[in-house]
Design brief:
78 residues; 6% strand; two-stranded antiparallel sheet; 28% helix
């Protein structure tokens, strides 16, 4: 979902469904859900300025949660 700021009005929505081939294993969520997240982002017509994830980034116990993992794949810089 892409929101405008500061109104937070939805300007675009994409949905991607994929079968899960990797079981849920705590600590490696990005391997289970990362492909679907990337596919949903690829469908966007608008390039967002900020990405927010329902998952950890560098606060992950291994230092690389789903948010950081996707950021590395997309070459996101801070």
């Amino acid at each position: 979902m892409v929101l405008s700021f500061p109104s937070l009005e939805m300007v675009e929505l994409t949905v991607y469904e994929a079968p899960t081939v990797i079981p849920y294993i705590p600590g490696v969520l990005s391997f289970r859900e990362g492909g679907a997240i990337l596919s949903a982002l690829a469908q966007l017509k608008i390039s967002p300025d900020v990405l927010m994830f329902d998952g950890q980034g560098i606060a992950h116990p291994l230092g690389l949660g789903v948010a950081s993992h996707i950021g590395v794949i997309l070459n996101v810089r801070h």
